[in-house]
Each structure stands twice: as C-alpha cells, then as structure tokens.
Amino acid sequence: FQEGALTVQAPELRAPERSFPYSLNYADNLYRNGFWHTPSLGRAIGEWLELFEQHQPDLLLCEFAPVALLAAQLVGLKRAAIGGSFWLPPSSVPMPTYQPWFDIPRSLLQAREERLLVSVNEARRPWTSKLMGSVAELFDGCPKWVCTPPELDHFGERDDGTVFLGPMAPMFERGSMPDTRLAFIYLRSGH
Q: What is the mean pLDDT of residues 13-20?
C-alpha cells in the first residue's frame, strides 16, 4: 500500500461453530462457512454498509469477500472480484459442483443453492424486499478476474465473461532462473 493510505478492519462474519459435510459447490461453501446463521450474516452486511457509508468508496475490489459483495450490491456500489477459480465460480444456476468427477444430481445442487438463498434473503430483508433468485446473482454486474490460466480452471470452459489473468506468483528476474528447466504438467485431457 501507498504510505498514508487509509486501512480499516474489514467486518467479520462471526457465526457460531457448527459441523457440516464437505461442500458440493460454492453455495454449499458459503452456507457452511457462516451464511447458515442469518443473524450473523445480517450483522456483517450491516457492518459493511456502515463502512461504505463512512468512507464513500467509488469501487469495491475484493478477493473472496462474498458478504462485502452482497452489501455493495445493496447500495449499487461498483464491484469487482479477483482471486482463484474456487471462490469465483461460473455464473450458472445452480452453481456447479466442486467435484465434477462424481455424478452429483443437479437437483441436489439446486437444493443446496435454495437452502443458502433462504438465509441470504432473510439477512438482506432489513435493506431490501428484492429476493435473490440464484447465487449467481451475487456476481451480477461484477467483473470476475481469475488468477489462473483457463486451462487450470477446475470448472472448465466458461461463458460468463470471466477474465483469466494467469498466475499471480511473483515474477523471477532473468538472473535467478535456473539453467535447467523441468516441468511436470498434469491437465485434463483436451488441454
């Protein structure tokens, strides 16, 4: 950060601990990581809204901050998301599975999404009566910049405008590169 830049503590989603099975998709991941607890989710949304009101930002750029995305969407704040494909899934309904090698019924993925939406819509109720109809709506109007090559995106091909920036690892200076280069590359067939 630039010297003198203002930094503030981001609101934290503080839901009580609870055990869940492994996440099947992004909706499941959010649910099991605090979104199941509507009062905590509502509090976190309110804290983000207070920060936006206090600091009047022109843009929210975030790396895996779904509560911040929800809050910014409520007040029409421009948003952009950056990060790995795991937390920037394709904008499909229902959200795709994290385990495409299993035959997971679409109806199960849809049920998990609907379970999350009940909690999200209840938490948003103090600020809007408009219901979110899908988890993909979280990213409506929000550019997604994925920090991996498209060939390494475990979701496969996308048609939702996602931009792939490539890996965000620090660049090596020419002098520090080893003389011999060995690589083991493990990709899906077709790449």
A: 87
